[in-house]
Structure formats: C-alpha cells, structure tokens
Amino acid sequence: MWMCRACGEIYDPAQGDPDSGIPPGTAFEDLPESWICPVCGARKADFEKIDD
User: What is the DSSP string of 14-31?
Assistant: First the structure.
C-alpha cells in the first residue's frame, strides 16, 4: 500500500481508485504519472510505500 505524504490517504492496489478510472488490482507502479491523490490532489511522486 502507498500513503500520500500530504494528507495520509492510502492507495490500496486491491481497491484501485474507481472514481478516477483506476480499476481494482492496479499496481501503484502502473498508475499513470498524471494520477493525483483523490483527496488532496498531490502528485503520484508524493506517495510513499508503507507496510501492507
């Protein structure tokens, strides 16, 4: 799982980000570079890997 350093939002690959058109099962590495945090709008680069 990956956490937004700006707001603490968690990206869980098992859940994806359906509201942004990202289906469940999408690995963080496979997200487009244009993807942003659905909560605060931070860039993909602002996320850090956390223990699952």
Answer: TT-BGGGTB-TT--GGGS
